[in-house]
Design brief:
By secondary structure, the chain is mostly helical. It has one domain. It has eleven helices and no strands. The protein has helices at residues 2-6, 10-25, 31-45, 47-62, 64-73, 78-92, 101-122, 146-166, 172-189, 194-217, 240-251. Helix 3 (31-45) runs parallel beside helix 10 (194-217) and helix 8 runs parallel beside helix 10 (194-217). The longest helix has 24 residues, at 194-217.
């Protein structure tokens, strides 16, 4: 029971191990390419959630000015601000958590594969654990061979590219943080098995291709721009004299026209 609590991912590990064994024994794929194929299968299963994620991010961008107005209105009352935002989400059917679903569901697979590769290092399976004749052992730490540093560079570049293509509807500050984050993660994943970095690198390359395809199929929803008031676009009031003159003209009574004088010709008297 203690083991089950300490390792809740054990069932998922068994599933991944069986899938990798099937890809290796039935399809005769090397273990490294079996990991790449496993990554593609996982991403295919996540496609419906990714589509939902894209629509959710577009909806958030569409309603961003309204949400910002609510935050400004209740900036001194955080509790009321959260209540109004939740009410706004319900009325407009906005789900901010939908944009995080693919990442949240992918993390258990990531950690389960980590334990599978750790088991590979303790009990090496039959077959070569090298990849493309460059990486000698995918179960060894990524920094154990010079090729691992190349994979780290590709990982950072692919992670930044995936953020660039999939983060077009994100806030500018959030997007900048996600672009810089892979560089900080390098020191964290430097001790991971090489196969795990290969899994994440394949995931990023898939996301890049997915982002390019998404731009063609799903039109980008632009956020409505609020009109900015300035002295240039403010309506110019009509001069006061222009409104007074017609009033004066209307208040004056109409004067009768002067009678027209008719000249008479003088008649000459006959003698």
């Amino acid at each position: 029971m203690i083991v089950g609590i300490s390792n809740p991912l054990h069932p998922l590990e068994d599933v991944l191990r069986h899938v990798l064994d099937w890809l290796h024994t039935t399809l005769h794929l090397p273990w490294a390419w079996a990991i790449v194929t496993l990554t593609v299968l996982v991403r295919i299963l996540l496609v419906p959630l990714v589509i939902k994620q894209i629509h959710s991010m577009q909806t958030l961008q569409k309603h961003a000015p309204e949400m910002k107005a609510i935050q400004q209105k209740y900036k001194h009352d955080k509790q009321r601000q959260q209540e109004e935002l939740m009410k706004f989400y319900r009325e407009n059917k906005v789900n901010p958590a939908a944009s995080c679903l693919p990442l949240v569901l992918q993390l258990p697979v990531f950690f389960a594969l980590y334990f599978v590769l750790k088991d590979f290092s303790k009990h090496p399976p039959s077959g070569s654990l090298s990849w493309m004749g460059i990486v000698p052992d995918i179960s060894a730490p990524v920094t154990s061979h010079w090729s691992g540093y190349v994979l780290l560079v590709i990982y950072v570049a692919s992670q930044m590219a995936s953020t660039y293509f999939m983060g077009t509807t994100m806030d500018k500050t959030q997007r900048t943080i996600l672009l810089v984050m892979p560089i900080a993660f390098v020191f964290f994943i430097a001790h991971f098995p090489t196969g795990l970095v290969l899994y994440w690198m394949t995931t990023n390359l898939w996301v890049v291709g997915q982002g390019l395809q998404t731009r063609k199929l799903i039109p980008k929803t632009s956020a409505p721009m609020l009109p900015r008031r300035s002295s240039r676009n403010a309506p110019t009031p009509a001069p006061a004299t222009a409104a007074v003159e017609p009033a004066k003209a209307a208040s004056k009574p109409a004067q009768p026209a002067a009678p027209r004088r008719v000249k008479r010709k003088k008649q000459t008297r006959r003698r």
